[in-house]
Amino acid sequence: MKIAYITYSGEIKYSAANGFNEITGLLSYLQNKGLDIEATIWDDPAVDWTKYDIAILKTPWDYHQKIDAFKAWLDKIESLDIRLLNDYKIVRWNLDKHYLQEIIADGFDVIPSVFLERGWKGGLQPLFETLKTQSVIIKPCISGGSKNTIIVHQQAIAASYEQVVALLAEADYIVQPLMNEIQDGEWSYIFFNGKYSHTILKRPKAGDFRVQQIYGGSIDTLYPTAEEIAHAATYVEKYAKECLYVRVDGLMVNGHFVLMELELIEPYLYLSYGENALENYYQAILAQIN
């Protein structure tokens, strides 16, 4: 059973965290466990995909910049009967943040959201009224790493309008209130094969809203209650039950977890922050392939 560990050709911006480099260290760990697995760049034209039985998405972190090529690559390896983890259907669903509309329609707790389609030239003021906020965050529906993500304040609508229209000329966007709770930290629950593994809290540096390490964010291990884990698990049970990995990201609002995103394609899994997380991941792979 030969496994492709899917990466990309760009710079790996995440270095060792908590004493472990998840990108290189995880691959070595899995190889030392006896898996026939090797790093493979998803859009490398020299790759012979016919030699692989399984592909595990790990760091194809430029897919959103090459979305048509990525979709074509998915079609190609699916046609070769290569099993993808996570599954093709769930990856295609999760590519575009419009998937949140389904979760909202199903009655789950999600950060309030308005979707603007490409070519939008409407008014900004109604967005603030709809979302009941004085500041909004606007980000592409297909994106990663806070790319092309901006904040617009209600008092600066006129100054921001042309920038927003220019962004909408290129893609669909999602608009959400800038939640004050982001300063308290973003919760990330990690599950493997539907089983809870660990939780981390990502906090932005002072004066920023981006929680990623590359922007100065900090990370701490959290130990949620059984009730909190069970609530996060409801999203997994409904939308990602059969997935090798799931990261459930959200905020605590008035003591209650509210979803920001379900990360089902290429999330950083913070394996060095959870007791037995590496082994949990490995055992989940074994369960999938067996």
Keywords:
alpha+beta; Rossmann fold; D-amino Acid Aminotransferase, Chain A, domain 1; Dna Ligase, domain 1; 3 domains; five-stranded antiparallel beta sheet; four-stranded parallel beta sheet; 8 helices; 13 strands
CATH class of the largest domain: Alpha Beta
Question: Distance between the terminal alpha carbons, to the nearest Å?
Answer: 10 Å
Decide which structural class fits the backbone: alpha+beta
Task: Give the uncertain stretches in residue-range form.
Answer: none
Question: What is the helix/strand order?
Answer: EHEEHEHHEHEEHEEEEHEEH
Task: Produce the secondary structure layout.
Blueprint: E1 2-7, H1 22-32, E2 36-41, E3 54-57, H2 67-79, E4 83-85, H3 88-94, H4 99-105, E5 114-116, H5 125-131, E6 135-140, E7 150-153, H6 157-168, E8 173-177, E9 186-192, E10 195-203, E11 218-222, H7 226-239, E12 245-253, E13 256-263, H8 277-289
Parallel strand pairs: 1-2, 1-3, 3-4
Antiparallel strand pairs: 5-8, 6-7, 6-8, 9-10, 9-12, 10-11, 12-13
Characterization of this structure:
It comes from Chitinophaga sancti. One of its GO terms (molecular function) is glutathione synthase activity. The chain contains eight helices and 13 strands. It folds into three domains: about 1-95, Rossmann fold (3-Layer(aba) Sandwich); about 100-110 and about 180-270, ATP-grasp fold, B domain (D-amino Acid Aminotransferase, Chain A, domain 1, 2-Layer Sandwich), CATH 3.30.470; about 115-180, Dna Ligase, domain 1. The chain has about 290 residues and is of the alpha+beta class. The radius of gyration is 19 Å and the shape is globular. Helices cover about 30% and strands about 25% of the residues. It has helices at about 20-30, 65-80, 90-95, 100-105, 125-130, 155-170, 225-240, 275-290, and strands at about 1-5, 35-40, 55, 85, 115, 135-140, 150-155, 175, 185-190, 195-205, 220, 245-255, 255-265. A five-stranded antiparallel β-sheet has the order 11-10-9-12-13. A four-stranded parallel β-sheet has the order 2-1-3-4, with helices on one face.
